[in-house]
Amino acid sequence: MLQREVSDRMAERLEYIKFQPQLILDAGSGTGYGAAHLRRQYPDARVLELDLAQAMLQASRAKQQQQDGLLKKWFGRRQPWQVCADIERLPLADNSVDMIWSNLAIQWVNVPDGVFAEFFRVLKPDGMLMFSTLGPDTLMELRRAFALAVDGATHVNQFIDMHDLGDALLHSQFAEPVMDMDKIVMTYSSVRDVMHDLKAIGAHNATSGRGRGLMGKHAWRQVETAYEVLRRDGKLPATYEVVYGHAWKSATRKKTNTLPDGRQVIEFVKPGQAPTR
């Protein structure tokens, strides 16, 4: 599954960063695969799982209880901290978490600046953000199939370029952003399996450019036929451009003349007078 593969690759990157957080927010935690790794890597930290889907949080809790067994549950095993909420409106206090981990969640947000601003708000000074998301070359095979079989409308989500994400981090006042990218080719038995994997990571296959109404069976069969020409060794490929990033909330960041809404503050100073706003 794509989400687990990307989570494992994020975890490898995390091993090179010397950091010991006490409270970690898993923003878009899904069924808890990433949170389980974070608990193993940071056994003294608390991990807060946050997801918009209550069913995902319930699945994570059930999985952890099953793994722990009844004995650990009875003899003081700490239950997972969970909250059902939107990553764009975090129900957390300012400067409250040491680290934010977010695996394949922010790609479904139209404008990343708002999410990064929320992440910056809840991070403590010197806190770290680590995330993964999808880049614009994601699902190029599926886009081609729709273009050949149906029309030129947008049927697959559009994703944001790595450099634009880096700019958004800087705009949100993060320091030392580091960005890199992988291309992962997953293989599937059918086009419907591709769509199922997308659904599993929260995709709704809906963008502003798509046509209205449901796609008919005939049109869908045309899409499947167009995709079939790519089948090799009995499998269909699907390319995912995965963008990774991490950045810090610097405790010593310089004073800025930019307001949170992006407006610039201009200071008018007379000779011998202290600056005023």
What attributes characterize this protein structure?
alpha/beta; Rossmann fold; globular; 277 residues
Measured between the Cα atoms of the first and last residue, the distance is: 53 Å
> Mind telling me the CATH superfamily name?
Vaccinia Virus protein VP39
Shape: globular
Q: If strands are numbered along the chain, what order do they take across the biggest sheet?
A: 3-2-1-4-5-7-6
Domain module tally:
1
> In the CATH hierarchy, what is the architecture at level 2?
3-Layer(aba) Sandwich
Order of helices and strands: HEHEHEEHEHHEHHE
The residue-averaged pLDDT reads 84
Poorly predicted ranges: 205-214, 254-258, 264-269
Oligomer: single chain
Radius of gyration: 22 Å
Structural class: alpha/beta
Largest sheet: 7 strands, mixed
Strand content: 15-25%
Verbal overview:
By secondary structure, this protein is an alpha/beta fold. It has eight helices and seven strands, in the order αβαβαββαβααβααβ. It has one domain: Vaccinia Virus protein VP39 (Rossmann fold, 3-Layer(aba) Sandwich), CATH 3.40.50.150. Helix content is 35%, strand content 22%. Strands 3-2-1-4-5-7-6 form a seven-stranded mixed beta sheet, with helices on both faces. The longest helix has 21 residues. The radius of gyration is 22 Å and the shape is globular. About 8% of the residues have low confidence.
